[in-house]
């Protein structure tokens, strides 16, 4: 009986730490396991929003296919350990696991060990983010705070604020600038 309670307690701890927050796991989207992992010191206080500059997706099958293609490109062509983003957001309103809550991603050079990179599928210079995708990210961030992955006073920034890029695209950038955790002045973050 004691063994049962110990196993149950361990299960509860793992669920609390690795809580899925409604995220589509790598296993569910048929992703590859990472070649290597580095653990992220948590809680984190920085979220970087990006876009893929690919076509958008609106179905589970098309979004999972794009995520698999991104991971294959990152691992096979760029020699990365895994897909670079922490999470990838589909136009279908689903959040796809990338490096996840626990591992260091490879999304923004110089900021990977102190942030989560959340990447929207699409080109948001042209596309408008779906309400479902925006709601999914907001729910993910709330869950991240509740589970202790993000600090309560975390900051959201656009990729373009930290490096020379157009990411996350004009339309998505305009949207995130209205979020309550938006950080306009990133001078305190600059490396």
UniProtKB/TrEMBL annotation:
SMART domains: Ami_2 (SM00644), PGRP (SM00701). The keyword Nucleotide-binding does not apply. Residues 21-163 form the Peptidoglycan recognition protein family domain. Residues 32-169 form the N-acetylmuramoyl-L-alanine amidase domain. Keywords: Disulfide bond, Immunity, Innate immunity, Signal. Belongs to the N-acetylmuramoyl-L-alanine amidase 2 family. This is Peptidoglycan-recognition protein. It comes from Spodoptera litura (Asian cotton leafworm).
């Amino acid at each position: 009986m004691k063994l049962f309670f110990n196993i149950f307690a361990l299960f509860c701890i793992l669920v609390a730490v690795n809580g899925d927050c409604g995220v589509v796991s790598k296993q569910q989207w048929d992703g590859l396991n990472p070649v290597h992992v580095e653990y992220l010191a948590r809680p984190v206080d920085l979220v970087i929003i990006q876009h893929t500059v690919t076509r958008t997706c609106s179905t589970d099958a098309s979004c999972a296919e794009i995520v698999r293609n991104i991971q294959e490109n990152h691992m096979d062509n760029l020699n990365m350990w895994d897909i670079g983003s922490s999470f990838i957001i589909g136009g279908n309103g689903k959040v796809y696991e990338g490096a996840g809550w626990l591992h260091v991603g490879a999304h923004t050079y110089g900021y990977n060990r102190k942030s989560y990179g959340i990447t929207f599928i699409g080109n948001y210079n042209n596309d408008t983010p779906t309400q479902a995708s925006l709601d999914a990210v907001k729910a993910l961030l709330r869950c991240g705070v509740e589970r202790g992955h993000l600090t309560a006073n975390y900051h959201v920034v656009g990729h373009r604020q930290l490096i020379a890029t157009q990411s996350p695209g004009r339309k998505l950038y305009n949207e995130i600038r209205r979020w309550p955790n938006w950080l306009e002045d990133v001078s305190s973050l600059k490396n």
